[in-house]
TrEMBL record:
Residues 468-504 are annotated as: Disordered. Keywords: Membrane, Transmembrane, Transmembrane helix, Vacuole. It comes from Wickerhamiella sorbophila. The keyword Transmembrane applies. This is Vacuolar transporter chaperone 4. InterPro entries: SPX_dom (IPR004331), VTC_Complex_Subunit (IPR051572), VTC_domain (IPR018966), VTC_sf (IPR042267). Gene3D superfamilies: VTC, catalytic tunnel domain. One of its GO terms (biological process) is vacuolar transport.
């Protein structure tokens, strides 16, 4: 399929108006290079179009990047606001139900919405930039194919396209790390300003060096019994996959640091682990890089698949022992001075007579999380993305893998639901169970003991197939109100015999006629060029919640003032003890109370106790539902209170007015008194209407409540109209 047809689907549907004019430029190249001849004007025409499209795309991408940065600044302000609310109420038990609670929940929900929008925009921007860059490369390739020579303009445009200021060279690392920090804050429920809380504090303090912690993660991932799934990821889709993983997993602290992971695989002469598709013995080492040079190096850890209950045995090796293991000079005497783990692991290696078979070097990004499945089974998930993967096999030949490799390991029988959904998306290419970096190294060495024939994944590499897949187009659901159907009635015309249609040659009298305008054509539902409006329901819900909060703030402040006044009077009368008297400093309850008030003694981080019972887990959709439920409950409570107050005041005013009308003669009242009575009846009607409107904003309730409220409103309106008529007529 030609790329001009694929471009709308590979790019972002909402931004398709900003796609490059691929078909127009391609046709221009074909016309100007007909017969393998091209004039100077043809060169100028082609590269003028290319430069114009490049500038348009570059400007649009930079503007979208500015919008993302603005959203991140909004997230920082929300985090600072939540942190200030937490620090202001952490020492007051009576403030746990104060007016700031609803503001805080609204800020958390708004923060989650902003983080979701940033994640979506980053994925869309990466997808859009990759699609446009591929389009430019294909146009350059077509020009080189048809033109007799390249020319200086082509080289200048290539330098512009691949330059540091190009949209194709945007680095999303800083945005990615900030998103990781925001997701960790939301999951942990601990909000602190970015300047006061480094990213690694959310994953727990650690005194171990960074390279050691990264190496220990790799060892845990290998040595824990778990199922493994491999995916290949194209370089154009890697940012989208990284952000998608952030929504479900936590980025390991320091994993973003410039580092190299070096893994050496060991196997016996029969390649037993490779044939049985088991995890082989291996040594792991992590090297930190500074300006391209190794600044720190972890100690080598040897993982041996010893089997049994332990499954794997891991031992830290010195450089001397590692060298002997690699060269095959290790003997049983060398094990005497080692610890028990090293003796057990290396003893297994000596008994199996294993040798190094391949070494893999890559830049690794690490994810990890814990969460509970629906059947309450605790499931652990690890994920690593290996980039710039270079394989050195036993023949000392080097080979760079063309794609990024995503390896996911999880405990339990079934994969998480989010992983199944990601595996079905267009971003990742699943590979068979026979693939691993170790198997890839053996395949390059043409090992006949392992591969009698080429596996399915090897055929893809040999043929150079494109693993990218076009995303499935999202079908736009149109409202039934956008189009109307008018059925003609055969007997509606006054002309013609038998009441037929006035157009005698019209054979579609009983067909339906559909109406549309230039922006809403019902026949264009599958047309990629049809005009569509994308609506985000989260914005409307957030605005509604903020309006409800603004309406309820005065009532909440009033109720808080009354509650504090009553509590203060009780304390003066000795009917209630204060918090300080109830929990003195030397009381055993003091430490528990301080813990509930928001002090985490382990991390030293201040956070609100209100998030303890609603700790945000990895599943953000579940947490969003909890926050929405709490906000909806408060909104319903405030609307019910407002309805009750308004209807009660309306009833009191009506009773007072009719008491005066029945006890006094209306004709004897002065004009001023009559005006006051009319104003009172009008005020009663307004209050009743306001109460009915507040009841309408309430969530759908049972029918007896609806009958009572609407019946009361109707009675107040009748009494008001009747009273005003009585006063005016007399």
């Amino acid at each position: 399929m030609k790329y001009g047809v694929q471009l709308p689907s590979r790019s972002v549907p909402e931004w398709r108006a900003h796609n490059i004019l691929y078909n127009d430029i391609r046709d221009t190249i074909t016309q100007e290079t007909s017969g393998n001849l091209i004039t100077a004007d043809g060169y100028n025409t082609i590269f003028s179009l290319l430069n114009d499209e490049y500038q348009n795309v570059n400007l649009f991408v930079k503007s979208k990047l500015g919008e993302i940065e603005q959203r991140l600044r909004t997230c920082q302000r929300l985090v600072a606001a939540i942190s200030s609310l937490d620090s202001g109420s952490r020492n007051k038990l009576e403030d746990l139900q104060s007016t700031s609670e609803m503001t805080r929940d609204t800020n958390i929900y708004q923060l989650q919405c902003e983080v979701a929008k940033v994640s979506r925009d980053v994925q869309h921007l990466s997808r859009f930039a990759g699609a446009q860059f591929t389009g430019f490369r294909k146009l350059i390739k077509k020009f080189r194919k048809l033109a007799p020579k390249d020319g200086p303009q082509l080289h200048e445009f290539e330098r512009l396209l691949n330059g540091s200021e190009s949209f194709a060279s945007i680095d999303f690392t800083s945005i990615f790390l900030e998103l990781s920090l925001l997701y960790d804050m939301i999951r942990s429920g601990r909000f602190s300003p970015f300047k006061s809380l480094p990213p690694w504090t959310l994953n727990g303090p650690s005194s171990k060096p960074l390279e050691t912690r990264l190496c220990q993660f790799d060892v845990r991932m290998v040595s824990t019994p778990a199922k493994t799934i491999y995916y290949w990821i194209h370089s154009e889709d890697i940012v989208q996959v990284q952000v998608s993983l952030l929504q479900n997993l936590s980025l390991l602290a320091g994993s973003d640091h410039s580092q190299v992971t070096r893994t050496t695989f060991y196997d016996d002469e029969e390649f037993d682990c490779a044939v049985r598709k088991r995890e082989p013995a291996q040594t792991c080492q992590v090297e930190l890089l500074e300006n391209g040079d190794v600044s720190a190096k972890s100690r080598t850890v040897f993982c041996a698949p010893t089997g049994g209950i332990r499954h794997f045995c891991a031992a830290t090796l010195s450089s001397k022992v590692e060298h002997k293991l690699y060269t095959g000079a290790l003997t049983s005497k060398d094990l005497d001075s080692l610890d028990n783990n090293a003796k057990f692991a290396l003893g297994w290696a000596l008994s199996r007579q294993i040798k190094p078979r391949a070494t893999v070097v890559s830049s690794r990004l690490r994810y990890e999380t814990n969460f509970a499945t629906t059947d309450a089974e605790i499931q652990h998930v690890w994920a690593v993305i290996d980039s710039d993967l270079v394989v050195q096999n036993c023949r000392n030949s080097l080979s760079k893998f063309p794609y990024h490799v995503l390896q996911i390991r999880f405990t339990g029988q079934d994969a998480p639901k989010w992983l199944e959904d990601m595996g079905k998306s267009h971003l990742m290419h699943p590979v068979s169970e026979s693939f691993s970096s170790y198997h890839y190294a053996l395949y390059l060495a043409q090992n006949k003991k392992v591969f009698w024939s080429s596996p399915s994944w090897a055929k893809i590499l040999e043929k150079g197939e494109d693993i990218r897949k076009a995303p499935k187009p999202a079908r736009q659901q149109r409202s039934k109100r956008s189009t109307q159907t008018l059925r003609r009635q055969s007997g509606s015309s006054s002309g013609g015999a038998g009441g037929g249609n006035i157009l005698l040659n019209d054979t579609t009298a009983n067909d339906s006629t559909r109406y549309w305008n230039e922006f809403d054509n019902p026949e264009d539902e599958d047309d990629e060029n049809a005009f569509s409006v994308f609506v985000n329901d989260e914005d409307e819900e957030l605005v509604r919640m903020m309006r409800a909060e603004a309406l309820s703030q005065p009532l909440m402040k009033f109720s808080q003032t009354v509650r504090r006044s009553v509590r203060h009077v009780k304390q003066l009368l000795g009917l209630e003890f204060s918090t300080a008297d109830e929990y003195p400093s030397n009381s055993p309850c003091s430490s528990e109370t301080q813990s509930l008030l928001g002090t985490d003694r382990l991390s030293g981080t201040q956070y609100s106790p209100r998030l303890i019972p609603t700790d945000i887990g990895p599943d953000l959709e579940t947490d969003n539902a909890l926050v929405r439920t709490r906000l909806q409950h408060r909104e319903n409570m405030m609307m019910a209170m407002l309805t009750t107050v308004c209807l009660t005041l309306a009833a009191i005013i009506d009773v007072m007015v009719y008491a005066i009308l029945l006890s006094e003669d209306v004709e004897d009242l002065v004009v001023g008194a009559q005006v006051v009575l009319v104003v009172g009846l009008l005020l009663s009607a307004i209050l009743a209407t306001l109460g009915a409107m507040a009841f309408g904003l309430h969530n759908p309730s049972n029918w007896p409540s609806q009958v009572c409220v609407h019946g009361f409103w109707f009675a107040v309106m009748c009494f008001g109209v009747g009273g005003i008529s009585w006063i005016v007529t007399t």
